[in-house]
Known about the structure:
The protein is mainly α. 70% of the residues lie in helices and 0% in strands.
Amino acid sequence: MKNPKTSQPIVPRKASRRTSAALLAAIVLFASSPAFAVNKDMVQLQTQVQQLQDAVARLQQSNDERMGVMKDLVQQSADSVNKMSANLDAAEKQMQAQQTAQSGKIDQLSGQMQSLNDSIDDIRARLTALQKVMQDVQSQQQSIGASTPGQSASSAPAATPAPITATPPSASDSASPGPAVRQGKPSADVPLAGGSASPAVPPVDDLYKAALGDYMSAKYALSSSEFGDVIKSYPDNPLAGNSYYYQAEIEYRAGRYTPAVQAYDHVIEQFPDSNKVPVSRLHKGMALIALKQTDAGVKELRGLIQRFPNSPESMQARSKLSGMGIPVTPHH
């Protein structure tokens, strides 16, 4: 059926409404389906991004906590190391102080023992001189008793016969008795009768006593010359070894190390049994070190320790080597 005005077929209203509704629903469904799918994907992506951000935040927080713990551990370790370093420094300073104090005590003990040895040498020289005087007095008494005529045997001095005797005077000499003639080897201070008078050399004990007395009085130039007289006049006497030692000591104390080493060598090589050998080797080694001859000085100190291990000079040599950071015995 057509509409006469429009010539279009007439559609019933009810059917038209149904068709419009269906068409509208199809259009809406067709238009809304892609948008709904896109929104769903976006929501899922945003959710995943949020989860990832949360995971990164948790990881960052965990790393921060771990870094904080590590920083604390490192700080504690640094504090421990600093404390250990401070303790080591304190211990090292304490050891150095103890070593210095011990070295000072050893030096003091060595000086005291050396002074004691010097005093003993002085006393020995005095005793020797006193013994000689007593022997001279006895010889004079025997000479007077033997040259006096008419003296009874009972009036002769009851003294122990001395090794030097007098020759009885002859009848021609009874009026004016001549000088006593000593039997045996003539001494250096008694000139030979009838011979040309040569300069008399004093006995070795007198020379040494005078030189040692001037040394103890700090008259070093004079005493060195007097010790030289002992060495020149009595080169093989044990007191000549002591004289070399004191000459070396004078040079050593004045800082003249080269002549000091030469004088110490005389003691060590020519008088190996002298009680001055240990201290001579000690001071020789120190003099060589002062002369920058370190290897020779260390060798001398090690030789002293090996030869006289229990002497105070050996203890002082060990302290010197330890202070230089050098082992007492060489490493092979």
